[in-house]
Amino acid sequence: MGPTPSQTAEHPRTSVEINSNSAELCITEQEISNFLSNENNDIGTMPQFYCSAVNSNGTIKSCAFENSTLATLDTGCVKLKGNVLISEKDEEHTYKLESVKDILGSLTIDGTNLTDIDFLDSLENVVALKENQSAILIQYNPNLSNVTFPNLKRAIAKSDQVIIFQNNSQELLMDPSVCWNIRNVLNTSNAWIPTIDGQDCEQIEKDAIVRDNLECSKNDFTTFLLFSSFLFLII
After folding, report:
1. Domain check: are 28 and 90 in the same one?
2. Residues 163-200: pLDDT tens digits?
3. What residues contact residue 97 under an 8 Å CB cut-off, 6+ apart?
């Protein structure tokens, strides 16, 4: 493990990496929590697995999600270890995630009738360790039109696609603020955080400007036709 101080004087940062030739190396819940607790830590190379033991810190409730579902999950969990999947059958249990701040694994919302994800308002960190696994994947939710992560600080993945939205309500793609709000809350310059139907925030905004200009031109033309018709009637 080799912390490397950043050369940026105004905002000193530390790159944290754990390298090993062993494919069996794991990182404990306490170790990753220590790294996350310092906002100036940039988390780089990490092992591909979390160690199996769940932290028994009495002040913070940690829960394991492996081989579990939202239906069987306890309430009041602050840390979740495992890949969290929310499907249509889990919708009535999403309230159990309202207290969750850290997901040590990935978050997937797939094929639901949800309209928003306000049950994730407390979420601060999502750290997926497996290769080519996105931190957050939200897909095939046709009614999902309100998406915010007001307290999200880190979304970390060993993938170019860290946060993916695809095949949800078209409203997410039509409103550039949805994309920008997520990127801004994470304070990242990564142009691929997030993507919505394969497009980044810049492209979504460009498309919105084109649509607005076309709508203005259409309205101007309609006004011209109405005015011309009015003049014709007078004459």
Report:
1. no
2. 999 999 999 999 999 999 999 999 888 889 999 999 99
3. 70, 77, 80, 84, 119, 120, 123
